[in-house]
């Protein structure tokens, strides 16, 4: 039986497969002769630390506030009549006694003339009755006239005198009404726009509003304190965590909308004893000297109230406090330069720092920069803070602060 070339193919294929198996086995044995390389040792985290040192710390309280004129006067018509002319420039400062409006005086001049005429009549009547009484008195003394004649003459004289007094009052009233046609400013202040135009008929009372004048110096700044804030403050004072100045003599600073501070400081001059039933807050008012008129009524500003102190307060940088799953914590460094996680209770912010109310003791060291790289119970490499290093070589504090900010930003990014 003859074999074709295809009969030898399965034998050659089997031989080739055995060779491959031997090659792979040899490579596996060679690989087993070498041990895997050990991972490089973890780098020691470089951190900056600070020592916890309690100290009395001045604190400020900020509130949204609004300015108010200390005297906001409604300029109203006091008599009925036609408005002749507005003689002031709307929106400009006006002075005490400056004329603002003129009303048509002619009807009031006529009323005054009539009152003066009635007064003259009553004075003439008084003259006659008095002369008559002067004649009756001696005749009655001689029993030439009866007692009734004397009484009649006396009564007529007194009645005429009363009529003169009443007529004098009518004259004064007419003079006052005439004077009310010239409407003047009762104070120095900023004028508002005119509510009535020239030629309008105005009436005394609710329909006689002409304009407003706002006194600018002093200026009031009003802000409100909520019931929750008040109760929290009382609790902190009772626990000794907060102390107010004597006689509650706080200093108030106004921060304008562009972030600049009003140059003059103010003081609280009124606190409303009752809470508002609508907002649940009570009003606090501070007074500011405003001779240059920088503050205007109705401005929204920030009121910074200074004077309170937190005794023996613990302040730590905000970047040293981390947020855990359930609470805030810091890394506390022991004498062997190892870090241990410590849960802390934090209060309010103070600039770039944070008040810690519970969890830290005086003299302990905590990690400030590099906290994100710390592992529990692992030795740390403690380095000088950028601020301390810059101070040692004479770098200004502004650049030192910028260095701290850049370092903190780098740590957070990594």
TrEMBL record:
Family note: Belongs to the membrane fusion protein (MFP) (TC 8.A.1) family.
Taxonomic superkingdom: Bacteria
Main localization category: other
Region of interest (Disordered), residue spans: 394-414
SUPFAM superfamilies: HlyD-like secretion proteins
Multidrug resistance protein MdtA-like beta-barrel domain segment(s): 218-306
UniProt biased composition (Polar residues): 399-414
Pfam family, one: BSH_RND
Organism: Paraburkholderia kirstenboschensis
Multidrug resistance protein MdtA-like barrel-sandwich hybrid domain boundaries: 71-206
Domain Multidrug resistance protein MdtA-like C-terminal permuted SH3: 312-371
Location within or outside the cell: Cell envelope
Protein name from the UniProt record: Efflux RND transporter periplasmic adaptor subunit
Domain Multidrug resistance protein MdtA-like alpha-helical hairpin: 112-181
């Amino acid at each position: 039986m003859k074999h074709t070339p295809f009969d030898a193919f399965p034998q050659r294929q089997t031989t080739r497969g055995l060779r491959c198996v031997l090659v792979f086995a040899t490579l596996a044995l060679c690989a087993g002769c070498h041990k895997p390389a050990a991972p490089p040792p973890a780098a020691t985290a470089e951190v900056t630390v600070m020592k916890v040192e309690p100290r009395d710390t001045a604190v400020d309280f900020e509130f949204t506030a609004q300015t108010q004129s200390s005297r906001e006067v409604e300029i109203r018509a006091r008599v009925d009549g036609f408005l002749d002319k507005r003689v002031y420039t709307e929106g400009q400062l006006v002075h005490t006694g400056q004329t603002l409006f003129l009303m048509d005086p002619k009807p009031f001049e006529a009323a005054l003339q009539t009152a003066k005429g009635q007064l003259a009549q009553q004075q003439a009547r008084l003259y006659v009755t008095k002369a008559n009484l002067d004649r009756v008195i001696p005749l009655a003394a001689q029993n030439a006239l009866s007692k009734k004649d004397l009484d009649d003459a006396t009564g007529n004289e007194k009645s005429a005198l009363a009529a003169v007094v009443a007529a004098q009052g009518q004259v004064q009233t007419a003079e006052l009404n005439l004077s009310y046609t010239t409407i003047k400013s009762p104070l120095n202040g900023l004028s508002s726009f005119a509510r009535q135009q020239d030629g309008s008929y105005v009436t005394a009372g609710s329909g006689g509003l002409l304009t407003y004048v706002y006194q600018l110096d002093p200026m009031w700044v009003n802000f409100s304190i909520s019931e929750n804030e008040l109760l929290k403050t009382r609790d902190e004072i009772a626990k000794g965590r907060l102390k107010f100045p004597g006689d509650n003599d706080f200093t108030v600073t106004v921060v304008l909308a562009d972030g600049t501070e009003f140059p003059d400081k103010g003081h609280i001059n009124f606190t409303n004893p009752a809470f508002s039933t609508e907002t649940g807050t009570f009003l606090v008012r501070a007074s500011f000297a405003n001779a240059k008129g920088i503050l205007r009524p109705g401005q929204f500003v920030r009121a910074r109230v200074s004077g309170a102190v937190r005794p023996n307060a613990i302040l730590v940088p905000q970047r040293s406090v981390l947020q855990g799953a359930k609470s805030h914590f810091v890394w506390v460094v022991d004498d062997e330069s190892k870090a241990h996680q410590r849960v802390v209770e934090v209060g309010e912010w103070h600039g770039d720092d944070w008040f810690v109310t519970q969890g830290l003791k005086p003299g302990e060291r905590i990690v400030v920069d590099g906290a994100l790289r710390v592992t529990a119970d692992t030795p740390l490499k403690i380095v000088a803070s950028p601020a301390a290093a810059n101070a040692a070589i004479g770098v200004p504090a502004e650049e030192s602060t910028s260095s701290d900010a850049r370092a903190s930003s780098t740590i957070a990014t990594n």
